[in-house]
Design brief:
six-stranded mixed sheet, 250 residues, P-loop_NTPase, L-phenylalanine transmembrane transporter activity, Rossmann fold, binds adenosine-5'-triphosphate, 11 helices, ABC_transporter-like_ATP-bd, globular, alpha/beta, L-isoleucine transmembrane transporter activity, 10 strands
């Protein structure tokens, strides 16, 4: 289970995260939502070790990971995909995934400290299959469609076998068809294994459709937490973020 406790982060006078306590049960699919500037990306930056918190604890299966480096946090089992995919644009999809496995980080995740070439190929293909990227194995990443670049970014996190997968706006910038495909892929991925998925997403239709738990941030604080039904009808959330019920359904 991933649990953050009393997490705080300030940038000078700006309080981006204010006493946030949230629990993400093992194997759950949760969304973190809120208006622009609410502190969602900062929250992911704190969990993934990109930024140190000002105070508070981040517990992964009971172990406080605050103070660990980003690569140690990946090693401990927290993977992350970004709003703008971070790719090696000149490598093919397969090369990128095998490269991740052959990197010191990838190697250190293997039981015996080394990973034979054939095994990197098998693992890369397994993940490509999970994400529907098999037919793109030999395509140079920079030539992939926007949607496939986002899938590859997720694949790069997934190939290292995380326990928790953080997805920052997985459908940002996509057309309706790509959006549906991405959501179906993420949902299938989550349903098939014990992966804990946490997503930041602005598309409320998607959030309400797939999330078991929704956490609403506003001005760095937790404004509300609950099921889709509870959040949809929460007056404070409607006022701060969703707008009137009529606007929500428009
Ligand atoms: N590195 C930084 N230095 C200074 N202020 C920052 C930094 N990163 C974030 N902030 C501030 O912290 C607050 C929260 O920003 P954050 O990007 O986490 O919000 P967000 O909810 O992800 O917004 P969006 O939905 O627009 O991506 C904002 O006021 C932002 O300006």
């Amino acid at each position: 289970m991933l649990r953050v406790e009393n997490l705080c982060k300030s940038f000078g006078g700006v309080v981006a995260t204010s006493d946030v306590t949230i629990e993400f049960p093992t194997g759950s699919l949760s969304a973190v939502i809120g208006p622009n500037g609410a502190g969602k990306t900062t929250f992911f930056n704190l969990i993934s070790g990109a930024l140190p918190p000002s105070s508070g604890r981040i517990l992964l299966d009971g172990v406080n990971i605050v103070g660990q480096s980003s690569s140690d946090i990946v090693r401990l089992g927290i993977g992350r995909a970004f709003q703008v995919a971070k790719l090696f644009k000149t490598l093919t999809v397969e090369q990128s995934l095998r490269g991740a496995l052959m990197s010191p980080l990838g190697k250190s995740l293997q039981l015996h400290g080394s990973f034979p070439l054939s095994a990197t190929r098998d693992r890369a293909h397994q993940v490509m299959e999970q994400l529907g990227l098999q037919s793109k194995a030999d395509v140079v990443s920079g030539n992939l469609s926007h949607g496939d670049q986002k899938l590859l970014d997720i694949a790069l996190a997934l190939v290292l076998d995380p326990k928790v997968l953080l997805l920052d706006e997985p459908v940002a910038g996509m057309g309706p068809e790509e959006r549906e495909q991405m959501i179906e892929t993420v949902y299938d991925l989550w349903q098939k294994g014990g992966l804990t998925v946490v997503l930041i997403e602005h598309d409320m239709e998607i959030v309400f459709r797939i999330s078991q738990h929704i956490h609403v941030l506003s001005y760095g604080k937790v404004l509300a937490q609950g099921s889709a039904e509870e959040i949809r009808n929460n007056p404070a959330v409607i006022e701060a973020y969703l707008g009137t019920p009529q606007e929500t359904h428009a």
